[in-house]
Amino acid sequence: MRSRLKLTAAVGAFALVAVAGVAAFYSVAGNAGNSASCSAARPVAARMAPLARGDVAAVQVHGTPLPTPDLAFNGPDGTPTTLSAFRGKTLLVNLWATWCPPCLKEMPALDALQSALGGPDFAVVAINIDTRNLDKPRAWLDKRKIAALPYYADPQAKVFQELRAARKVEGMPVSLIVDAQGCELAILQGPADWASADAKALIGVAMTRP
Question: Contact at 8 Å (CB) between 129 and 157?
Fold first, then answer.
């Protein structure tokens, strides 16, 4: 009886390992496929690299663009949405919070960038990750007349955790430049003057096709 139980347990363990191995294989294969599709954006990234200077000198442009996690958050009306809903637009994805002074400092510049370039081909997606006092972020934006930015929020801050897991992001704010196919062209860990001529030049190239 004991030997039969041991055999059953061994077979079960083997099955679990086999299933996990198959899942891992398909996960890696899927990521490889995404990476391959993002490699087509290399020419755009190469044109962007020399423009990471001045007010956006700290932006890290990827030699090979990376698949961007399909971050999930709430739209302006509170309904769930994801980054893939913006497919077809170049995005500046920014995570911010009211407890982050550098985040607050760059919000007017992000608002100005959205006013200047926002439209069918580009959007600033600024996602608030406050987990307490959930009325505070909107009130802060209203008080400072930051009106061009639609209000996106993730009150569980899962978007930050997902980016940290995928990109080893450790601090705030963090901004990603994502192309129209959902490939991450560049990342900035820290604030920038996104309304500057340097930033607009960088974004302008990101909006071009390979």
Answer: yes
How many domains is the chain built from? 1
The answer to whether the Cα torsion of 154, 156, 161, 162 is positive or negative is negative
Per DSSP bridges, beta strands 152-153 and 174-178 are unpaired
Residue 57: both structure tokens together: 């000198």
pLDDT in tens, 43-98: 999 999 999 999 999 999 999 999 999 999 999 999 999 999 999 999 999 999 99
Claim: this prediction has a pTM higher than 0.85:
no
CA–CA dist 46, 41 (Å, integer): 9
The CATH number of whichever domain residue 108 belongs to comes to 3.40.30.10
90 part of a folded domain: yes
Residue 136 lies in a domain: yes
Q: Torsion-angle region of residue 127: left (phi > 0), alpha (psi -120 to 50) or beta?
A: beta
The distance of Cα 10 from the centroid of its chain, to the nearest Å, equals 42
Segments forming the whole domain that contains residue 92 = 41-206
